[in-house]
Amino acid sequence: MQVNVVKSKIHRVKVTGADLNYIGSITIDEDLMDAANIVQGERVQIVNNNNGERLETYAIPGPRGSGEITLNGAAARRVAKDDILILITYTWMDIEEAKQFKPSLVFPNEADNTLT
User: Fold this and answer.
1) Which residues are annotated binding-site positions?
2) Of the chain's two ends, which shows fewer C-beta atoms within 10 Å, N or C?
């Protein structure tokens, strides 16, 4: 049996931008992507702590060390600059493997989204 489990989470990052005229996606500082084991193009669930919105899009890398968290395309309408988000990815795995699996959890500095 396969189960869908949390693969990684970036907990409480601040939105740095919203670009309605971009094709789509979420731009994430590549340092944060690496720390959370998120790859370019991976599906990301976005939970907005400020307004309760939940949406899904895909990750694209932003400049390393920039702290960038930008929602692009239609998703830009669901956030405001400085909103606090939780970013979550999931994976399918065998239930026995899932019982032993430990997700990558990242808790960046909320002021500037840098790793502490």
Assistant:
1) 57, 73-75
2) N
Domain holding 35, by residue range, is 2-103
Q: How many domains does the chain have?
A: 1
Read off the CATH number of the domain in which 60 is found: 2.40.40.20
Residue 62, in any domain of the structure:
yes
pTM for the full predicted model: 0.96
Q: Which residues fall in the annotated binding site for substrate?
A: 57, 73-75
**Which positions are annotated as active-site residues?**
25, 58
Per-residue model confidence as pLDDT tens digits over 96-106:
999 999 999 99
